[in-house]
Amino acid sequence: MAILGGALVGFFVPDGPFRKSNPKFDISLLPKLSKINALKSAASGYFGHMWELYTFWAFVPMVIAFLSEGSFSSSKISLLSFSVIAIGGISCAVGGVISQKAGSKKVALFSLLGSGVCCIFLVIAPSVPSTIWIIFLLIWGILVTADSPQFSTLVSQSVPAEFKGTALTLVNSMGFALSIVSIQFAQLLLTWLPIDQALALLVVGPLTGILLFRFFAKKRGLNLKPPSVKSNRTIALHFLKWPSTPTFDLLNLNLH
Prior knowledge:
By secondary structure, the chain is mostly helical. It has helices at residues 2-12, 29-33, 37-68, 74-102, 104-121, 130-146, 148-157, 164-189, 195-200, 204-218, 232-238, 246-251.
């Protein structure tokens, strides 16, 4: 599948009109990126999202088995687990459409907040009828993924075109590493807690992500408007300017 996907992209997807050639690798770029508050804001939200997403997916079958109290067959649990995970693909597409009018920031924060609420609701899910908690899990499956492409968009908007690949690679890599820690931590919690209480603690991710997102978005940061002259000196100077571009200001708007 990976080879097929790569072949489809390589042979049938042309380069976009805004494609930029990659500059030479510069290790000094990493500490400079760490000073961009718009990037740290978007990355914080993404990390909160990643703390929850894959751990939720990993334990969905166990959650369904727990809530059904043994009344669901293994095939029914598998089908429902697939539905809860797969419905996230639809929400990503719908979220993209909505973001064209509402903006990526609002879509991302709404989804992250909603999935955090779902974490808390899981504690009372065993006391509601099966129809209710099935709908609830599907809603959770929608909200837990809708913010992912929006946070990636915000990450890419926070840096010049020349550095988008570096920023996205760093943020995505750190996010997936964090998801490993989250899964292992949830597995450890199952030693002492039932599955509903253990996964309810995933709310720490969305809550922390939202708080840090807003914290860094309010701080004054660096203006990284792409330089018109392709030289290392010009690029370095742009790291030292204060914000004045619409792109940066958009990322620092308060959510109403």
